[in-house]
Design a protein that fits this description.
about 70 residues, mainly alpha
């Protein structure tokens, strides 16, 4: 139970960090689409994927290897 809560909190923190990091990129110039909603959707999906990968990397390097207590 505590492991699931810790993993969820870590994912939320990583998701906020990845949204912050992706917001500096100008996807409008890269994609050249007319609808701004598509760019926001792309940024959301990329942030979600980055957050998942960051969470898995953090837990692989700490908890899974016995460094988490």
């Amino acid at each position: 139970m505590i492991y699931s809560i810790l993993k969820f909190i870590t994912f939320v923190i990583c998701f906020m960090l990845s949204i912050y990091a992706c917001s500096c990129l100008e996807f409008e110039k890269f994609c050249k689409v007319q609808f701004h909603g598509k760019v926001i959707t792309l940024m959301f999906i990329l942030s979600f994927v980055l957050a998942y990968l960051m969470t898995q990397a953090i837990f692989e390097l700490t908890i899974y290897n016995g460094f988490g207590g």
